[in-house]
């Protein structure tokens, strides 16, 4: 993300010391994450994002602008040279683990057993294994094995 849009001086943060709150301020609405999801799956044009999500054109325009303003997407000229397309930036691609975690949570908790749903596969067609964060010792990290170290401002 460009530094100019990241600082507290340029944005009214919900909770200025919390990375989760700041992230949600930037991409915490449903449409933004679905646009990023579709960009990760190859969508590039306004029309393609609109077709895949069903989002209203005015809302899609707003989300694309905000995602570009915050450095998650960038506009570039399409190979045909006749239109602009949207591409993920490094910052946008860095959301992959978060979307993977949301996807896998949804697979476990948002569907009835046996209910069909899409599957994320790797470049060889194999299902992506469950993502489990681990500590420096290799042990799985959980809500019970971690805690937030507060800054001086939010103690």
From TrEMBL:
Superkingdom of source: Bacteria
Domain HTH hxlR-type: from-to ranges: 18-114
Biased segments, Basic and acidic residues type: 113-127
Sorted UniProt keywords: DNA-binding, Transcription, Transcription regulation
InterPro entries: ArsR-like_HTH, HTH_HxlR, WH-like_DNA-bd_sf, WH_DNA-bd_sf
GO molecular function: DNA binding
Database matches in Gene3D superfamilies: Winged helix-like DNA-binding domain superfamily/Winged helix DNA-binding domain (1.10.10.10)
Region of interest called Disordered, as start-end residue ranges on this chain: 113-155
Record PANTHER family: TRANSCRIPTIONAL REGULATOR, MARR FAMILY, TRANSCRIPTIONAL REGULATORY PROTEIN
Protein name per UniProt: Transcriptional regulator
Organism annotation: Streptomyces griseus subsp. griseus (strain JCM 4626 / CBS 651.72 / NBRC 13350 / KCC S-0626 / ISP 5235)
